[in-house]
Amino acid sequence: MTLPASETGAAGLWEKLAARIAAGDRFAGLFAALRSPHSGDAAAGAALVLSAHVAAGAGIDTMQVALPPGAAGYPALTPLVGAAFWYERVIHDQFGVVPRGHPRLAPLVLHGSAEDHALPRHVAGYGMFTIPHGPVRSGVMESIEYLVETPGEAIPHLNMRVFYKHRGIEKRFGGMSAADGVLLAERAEGIASVAHALAYCHAIERIAGCSPPEPAGLVRVLHAELERVANHVDVAAKLADAAGLAVAAARFAVHKERVLRLVSGLCGSRFGRGVVVPGGVSARPRMSPGALLTELGRLEKAVMADADSLMATSSFLDRLRTTGPLTPARARAHGALGPIGKASGFSADARTERPYDAYPSLGLLPVRAHETGDALARLAVRWDEVVQSFDLLRRVARELAGTDAGELSGTDGGGATAAACEPAAGRAAGWAEAPQGEVLYDVTLEDGRISRCHPRSASFHNLVLMHDVFAGDILTDFPFIEASFGLSVAGVAL
Amino acid sequence: MSLWALRGLRNGVVTTKWPRRPDGYADGWRGPAVVQNQDVAEPDGLSDLCPTGAISAGAGASTRAVRLDQGRCILCGRCAEARPDVFAWSAGATGSDAAALTREGLVLPHLPEDDEAIGAARARLRERTAALRRSVHVRHVDGGSDGSEEWEVQALLGPVYDIHRLGVFFTASPRHADVLLVTGAGSAGMAGPLRATYEAMPDPRVVIAAGADAVSGGLLSAGLNSAGPNGAGPNGAGPDGGSATVMGGVSGIVPVDVWVPGSPPSPFGLLNALLIAVGRLADDRKGAR
Question: What is the pTM of this model?
Fold first, then answer.
């Protein structure tokens, strides 16, 4: 990790980065932070440090460059690596530095001035108009504004404003203790609480050099996979609802409720909150492995029976087939995460590439390859993942039955549910595979407290791809495309 | 071609009978923490147990020794774990009965003046909502939530909770809405749209703040002091170390009538709040539990 303090340093680093990505590595994130005054030369002023993360094989590499103190800008990365498009807009929002050569430097996560709120026009032509859809949308939805430019039916251009629900999560992490940080990580993207807690804790554990006890790793997988099932069933319910299949939507809603109730039966929270702590888990599941296996069996049968029926309902499939296609080339260039990438022939699954907790010993069932990249492929990938999840869950329940109950006893500090994990200082990346894709945390600790924490959800990385999937699709396809992405706005705006 | 209508009959009726009949799940579910013992010999350090600053101990002569603000509780359980002699998880009816008609009503134990204020608030609300009794339309607005609250609100529309059976419907237009159901901590970006939605609603209108984030800002806006080193951006830290981009709950943007704790609030908690909001269910929080 070298820190050349010049602008050419940035340009030089970007070229290296672009070469690595061309060679097959994946761009995983770009964050900026002011170098803390007492770790550098205070007299020279605070320098802005840009950290690019690259997923390569079994690890995440961090490449850094420090801008000269007071620098007003730097050469943009986006022209070389298109996936940095939104990352550089966030850095511009946060620090005001200008990535020179960036194609569109509008506010992304911070609420800009009134002129930023004028309706943008990207497509000119007879009869073109813009539909501002949001931030208060019909139905129970998260706040986001879609600006749909249309001549009536087709959608030649889509613009998204995500800043409405920016909550300053990254900022809020500053000053928190390592143990408290996990509470905030769970609330960064509420529907992927477990995955965010895992990614955060993996970073903390990497700094501390500790690893959770084996049974704790099993409990972590248990909750992470239940979260995946709940999310994928939720996507199926929303797609069925968009197609007007009221009974199918209702049945998937019932299944989702059963999953959430199973989670609350295991840990007391419907979203698995409070389970994952740095060093392990807070408590053993409150349900016996036998009862868990029985419920999992019933649940899998119910979910998969309805999934099979849904995938045999031709009026439904007609709406998804060829809708919202993401080309494999675009998915690869962007490093599309999770089911969106997998549906377009690009698989970046942290559980297999960089396995953690109990995944190395459990392994994953192989899944079918998909290349079409449409909403139907994305749903098919989700069903494959649900099958994988139930297989993992069954094996976790059997393994838990095999572990000595004494190993996971109680929350009173006596049991070995968590390894001691109280790091003082250091920096590390942590990751976990959320239902939406890989979640990445870059955590820096000083004096036992968080000095900087960059959470990067799969939702943030993937949502920008919505720009590119409206090839020939019309307004009525919009709900299908949005639901098939299955992202959370909370994780985007943070 | 699969026969969805037949599949739909497969599991019989899955809808809860609550509130007409008790529901096992409503009562078997972890709610915000409660104070179970007032007489603490050493209240020192109790307030440090809570990451959101919900606990105050030995504040003054007029207040009792230990008080807990359920509107700030994010259900982390640290207080109940560290001091089971003082704090406990709420269980039983609190899962669905935790909504309050004043902000102070969420602070336990209640003071006599709080109970008076709650009574007055209930009378005022009843007067306003008398016309709504059997048909209520709700407009939901996400004011900067973490996304889990939306799942719990959506659950109300599913077959298990099915609010339609109670004559409650969600509506797209604020012009048709009687109740504004707000989730989230009140992000700066949503202040304008949220206010505009409220302004567009006809009288009488009722506002529900759903969840610890909406009530108080939860973990985002309070609690921990941020003494540590901090990379400063234009969005500086708030007065008490919280995020400056949220407003510490939505009550600074719209006038809140019903306060629902929980992070996120359970569907039964939301159902309960909706019924309290329109006077269909007495809010029967007891003073000191």
Answer: 0.92
